[in-house]
Amino acid sequence: MTTYTAINLSKRPTGGAITADLFSVVSKEIPSLADGDVLVKQHHMSLDPAMFGWMSPDTNSYIAPVALGDVMRSSGIGEVVASQHPDFTVGERVMGMMGWQEYYLSNGQGLNKVSAPLSDEAVLSVFALPGLTATQGLFNIGKPQTGETIIVTGAAGSVGSIVGQLAKAEGLHVIGVVGSAEKADWIVNELGFDAAINYKSDDLDKQLALHAPNGIDLYFENTGGPIQNFIFERMNAHGRIVVCGLIADYDKQVPTPGPSWLNIIKRRLTIQGFTMPDHFHEVPALLEKLTPYVLAGKIKHRTHVLNGLTAAIEGLNLFYTGENKGKLIVKL
Ligand SMILES: NC(=O)c1ccc[n+]([C@@H]2O[C@H](COP(=O)([O-])OP(=O)(O)OC[C@H]3O[C@@H](n4cnc5c(N)ncnc54)[C@H](OP(=O)(O)O)[C@@H]3O)[C@@H](O)[C@H]2O)c1
Prior knowledge:
By secondary structure, the chain is of the alpha/beta class. It has helices at residues 50-55, 120-127, 129-142, 158-169, 181-190, 204-211, 227-233, 262-266, 283-295, 311-315, 317-321; strands at 3-9, 23-29, 38-46, 76-83, 93-96, 103-106, 112-113, 149-153, 173-178, 195-198, 216-221, 235-243, 270-273, 303-307, 327-331. It folds into two domains: 3-115 and 302-331, Medium-chain alcohol dehydrogenases, catalytic domain (Quinone Oxidoreductase, Chain A, domain 1, Alpha-Beta Complex), CATH 3.90.180; 129-278 and 288-292, Rossmann fold (3-Layer(aba) Sandwich), CATH 3.40.50.
């Protein structure tokens, strides 16, 4: 084969579902290598809600948007198929920001070798962005204490499910917020959360009162949405709110107004947002923190695999509908 397929971003979303007309599927020549180049055949790529931000025109964010006409940004795992780089050998397994394409030409920068004896799916689901984000957000920002009550939104998602399991392993009372009965059942009966609340059900405040009778010390926010106000009202003094994601607002032109700041004073709350690119230099320390929990069998995960590069396009909508059951991955 001398050509391969790539997907370029050609238009920016303006709200609502992601549609094929936002992208161009193009055929490219497999490049020949210059000195210092590495060619990778990508096997699995990660889909992430962050992609909604990367497609937006917002230049005042933690990372520049994908330029129109460029390959859509994503991380993935593949195999070195040709190398003129002294540090990379044909057959090695590598990970990096390879984008929505079957082959990736690199000068080696940002390409990391993957030596762990784990499937690509397991690496992308636990040791890549989801696990790193959960570890950074929970431990370094949330500062959990045994006996405290934590609530995690997006609790059956790839980040939220790991946050809840880490918190449980640390001896916290863990409540997960999810959007379906199936996900509620999974986090409680498979992952060991203490309770689940379906944010699409009624009486959210009563359910919070039932499951968090002593209030909430730690709130790991992945979604936003109407339950946010009820949780905010139940925060305890010196509570911490870790703002990781707000997917309920990603397709809105005008974000939902947040709660009043009064409780921040009255309850002496700490609210902190974070994004992982600020912490990529801390990855070795984060992996050192996360790995023992995984080795001790405390972290279960599930993956939702789509087949073929072009499945990525409409696959992104599964994040909005909640139909992704676990880490969303495209198998090439
Ligand atoms: N700060 C960072 O560096 C960082 C890094 C990674 C991820 N994140 C953020 O963390 C969050 C979770 O990411 P993930 O990769 O683990 O995705 P995920 O949770 O596996 O998938 C997204 C989930 O969000 C839920 N959702 C969608 N629309 C919603 C709405 N309107 N209200 C409430 N829930 C809604 C759906 O679950 P239900 O079926 O339960 O509704 C969906 O399955 C995202 O907001 C993402 O942007 C941030």
